[in-house]
Amino acid sequence: MSADISDLSLVRRVQRGDKGAFDALVLKYQHKLVKLVMRYVRNPAEAEDIAQEAFIKAYRALPQFRGDSAFYTWLYRIAINTAKNAVVSRDRSPIEYDLDRNNTDESYDMQGRMKDPETPEGLVLTDEIRSTVNAAIDALPEDLRTAIVLRELEGLSYEEIAAAMDCPVGTVRSRIFRAREAIDRRLREVFEGGLGRVEELG
Amino acid sequence: MNEELDSQLSAMFDDELPAAECELLARRLSRDEQLKARWGRYAVIGATIRAERGVRLNAGLARRVSAVISSEPVLAAEPVAQPKKTWANRWWQPVAGVAAVAGVAAVSILWMRSQSPEPTALVAQTSAPVAPVVSPAGRSVAQLVGVTATNVVNREPDSYVVPKNTARRPVVPSTELANYVVAHSEFSSPVARRNLLSAFMASESGTATLPAGSEEPTEDVQDDAKIPQ
Description:
The structure holds 2 protein chains of 2 kinds.
Chain A: H1 5-15, H2 19-37, H3 44-61, H4 71-92, H5 94-101, H6 105-115, H7 120-138, H8 142-152, H9 158-165, H10 169-194
Helix pairs in contact in A: 1-2, 2-3, 2-4, 3-4, 7-10, 8-10, 9-10
Chain B: H1 3-13, H2 19-31, H3 33-49, H4 61-70, H5 87-90, H6 92-115, H7 119-127, H8 141-154, H9 174-185, H10 190-208, H11 219-225
Helix pairs in contact in B: 2-3, 9-10, 10-11
């Protein structure tokens, strides 16, 4: 299986003018991108702003993307450059420079809290999503849990998981799908009606 | 929702779906909001398993990006692809190299010609006085050049005189040829020796009829003397 083929098929659609395909790319990579940016800025809200800027830059630059590298590699490069530029411009700001110069972990966390628009309700919801997913994973049969964890946590391919679990690749595909379906069934309750607080999936 | 479709979506999320199926599913994914929501939840599941701390799973990032993108102009219908280097595009490169080298060589030759005296002029300067003047023995080169210049300036009528052929050098002198034939006859058969001697005598008799001062045999005679034994 050629790597990055699904991303490339979405990218080609965006390049042909299909904006909906770009939504799928954002949904897939938003968490990874925010996590990457948080290596440069520790505030989650600022990291999301930078990730948003990176996605928009990527969309505008997508006509020049030729597929020489994987899409996510290209996207990560844009995000890192955007984060570095944001840090530099923030450091040039005299007010924020004074805050950063005396920066300790505690003061930095305080800055993050001051800038973070996250409501307590939002924090609770994130925690609830995590606990729901973790509970669903714990409830999975052993073979499904192993397959999904090897895939998501270790990043193994289906072929590698098949070798590790000593089963056909088709079985791996089926196990991962069934694991996702079981987790998603419980997750949907949280998103769609459980708390009634989530309008969309971020 | 179709279970097979969901299974394909799961495989596509992991980059494990064949390309042809990917193309079809990508089209559907970009239009089907339910499918897109499921796709997004798959991403949340992955982020939770990886325990990506600090990442807000319910953040409105995707919605905000989508709102900005919706106001952006639609991208070009066709991606701006760099032209791939094919043979058809590359064939001219060696030709251009050869042409450049040839051009430099041509310019160099022209420049060298312009810097040095023209060979035809030299020939005219040296041969022109020989033709109109009969046996300019005893005259110096300066005198010859002076005569030539005078002739050119005074525009005297040209007169053609056959110059003495001093350039033709005999390939084999007559005495040497005789010695050669005699020496060779020791090893040749009587018939061949007779033929060769008769040919030699014939050439010698022809030579004897030549006017005085032209001692060399003609080239035809020399060729005849080289008949293979």
